[in-house]
Structure formats: C-alpha cells, structure tokens
Amino acid sequence: MVILSVNRFMLSALSAAVPHVTDPDRLVTANSVSSTGGTLFFALGGGLGIALKHFTERGDHGYAVVAASALLGCLIAALLATGFTSDQLGPDAHERARRETVSSVVRGMAAGIRHVGQRRSTGYLLLAITGHRVLFGVLTILTLLLCRNYFHSGLTGVAYVGVAIATGSFIAAVVTPWATRKIASRSWVTLLLVAAAAAELAGGLPFHPAGMVVGGLLVGLAGQGIKIVTDTSVQVECEDDFRGRVFSAYDTLFNVAMVAGLLIGAMTLPDTGKSYAVLVGVALGYAVVGVAYSLLASRWDRRLLSRTDQKRA
C-alpha cells in the first residue's frame, strides 16, 4: 500500500508537470504517449512478473523475489527524474517556498475541487471517468473469477485479457489525438462510453474467453481515451496554482472508484464469476454514464456559448 500510494502521488505530479514541457497544441498527444506508455509498461511488468514467478519457488518466497525485482524499475525512474532542474516542472518559486501541513494539503484538495466546480467541462469529465472506474473494478473481479473458476485458465487467461486491455490503450493513444481534431472531445468521450456498453453486451454475454478478450480490448480503448481527454482538459482549463491539487483530487477519485467497483463485484458475483445480471448491469452502467455525460456537457457548452454571445452584444 505504501508503494502504490507513493506511485499515485508521483503520477499526479507527472500530470501537473506535462504542460511545463509540452506545447499547448500538443497536450493531447503528450497525454496519449504518457498515459498509454504507463499502461503498456504496466502490462509488460505484469507479464515479466508472471514469467519470473514461473522460474522461482512456489509460496511466499517466490512472490518476494518478484516484488524485490520491481526495485530495479523504481531506481531507473528515480535516476531519470534527477535529470530535471528544480524549476523545470513547476510550480514556481513562491509555491515551492510554502511549507504544507496535512490540513493545508486537505484544504488544497478542497480548493482544487471548488476550482473544478467553476470549470464544469472538466468536472463532468471527472465524473464520467469515475463512473468508468467503478464499472472497470466490477469487470476486474468478474474477469479474475471467470479465468480461475469458470474457464479454468488461471493467470494465462488473465494475461490474455491484460494484453487486450493494453492493446486497446495503445489504439486509444493513436486514435484519440486524431479523433479530437475531427469531432468535439465531448462527442468522442460519449462514443467511447457507448462503445464500451456495446462491447460488454456483444463480447461478454456469451461468456467465452475470446469474447472476454475482445471486450477487454474495447474497454481498454474506451478507458484510455477518456483518460487522455480528461487529463488534457485539467491541464488546459485549470490554473497552474490549482493544477496539482486538482490532479490529486482526480487521482483520489480514480482509485476510490476502482476500489468501490472491486467491492461491488466481490459482493454481487458468484464464485464462478458468471452472472448475466451483473454483466448487463455493467453494460447499462456504461450507457447511462455516456448519456448523462453527453447531456450535462452539452448543456454546459450551450451555457458558455450563450454567455459569450451576451458579452459580445
């Protein structure tokens, strides 16, 4: 838990720093490369972990060897981070001079949430990706149970689905910058959520390994595409003094939603993982999130357009 917690802080800082090293018109592409690279290397690390566990002894000692091997990646990342100067990634000297207490950090996150409340385009995206993470958490438990107790494919089946999700994330990194130049980001996010709903109905309901892999690919594409758009929106709409706080709150929502989804899956799924009701519920959940986001974001865009017209008049 300590390792994962530190990792989330690092990722929040990474997202807040991207605008300091990227031209504004390339933020979507930068977020595509950054977040998708993380997903691909996560899948690679999972595959290496499974392979390493295969060659080590069974039991706790084998898992300890796998966990200790992760130290190498942490050391490489730390070494790369030393290549940046103290002022290169932000914030400015005034912000760095402030000494934060635990209460001030909490107040800062609250201020970040209020800041987003004034920028509802970003706020609605945060709600959409939170909904996705809850549903993704349910699907995670469902996949693990199916691979273990229904398909009896074990880690091999999980690995196939993991590779499919990583492949979908890579496709999202390639397609999303192009798509958001052709259509509004709002429309792209809505399309991804609706596609995820259709993927779960078409690929998941047969409860066949191949269908789960296809569903994983499309859900991975949808999740990564939404995240790229959300990251870019936070970076563009939020002021620099608030950006790190917003990403901290965003990251907290991201993880709490995932845990909530895992708990829902654990409480509602049978031991085999095969549940038509839960899978249909997940698909309907994606559709509801997509429609709700589209309606709310469209209404907010019309309100902003009306305000702009009034100012010009």
Poorly predicted spans: none
Shape: globular
Q: Helical element count? A: 11
Give the ordered list of helices and strands: HHHHHHHHHHH
Q: What is the CATH architecture term?
A: Up-down Bundle
What is the total domain count? 1
How large, in whole angstroms, is the Cα Rg? Answer: 21 Å
CATH fold call:
Growth Hormone, Chain: A
Strand content: under 5%
What key attributes describe this structure?
single chain, 313 residues, mainly alpha, Growth Hormone, Chain: A, 11 helices, 85% helix, globular
What does this structure look like?
By secondary structure, the chain is an all-alpha fold. It has a single domain (2-312), classed as Up-down Bundle (Growth Hormone, Chain: A). Helices cover 85% and strands 0% of the residues. It has eleven helices and no strands. It has helices spanning 2-21, 27-54, 60-81, 93-97, 102-117, 120-150, 154-182, 185-204, 209-237, 240-268, 276-312. α1 packs antiparallel against α10 (240-268), α2 (27-54) packs antiparallel against α3 (60-81) and α2 (27-54) packs across α9. The longest helix is centred in the C-terminal third of the chain and has 37 residues, at 276-312. 35% of the residues are buried. The model has no long low-confidence stretch (mean pLDDT 84).
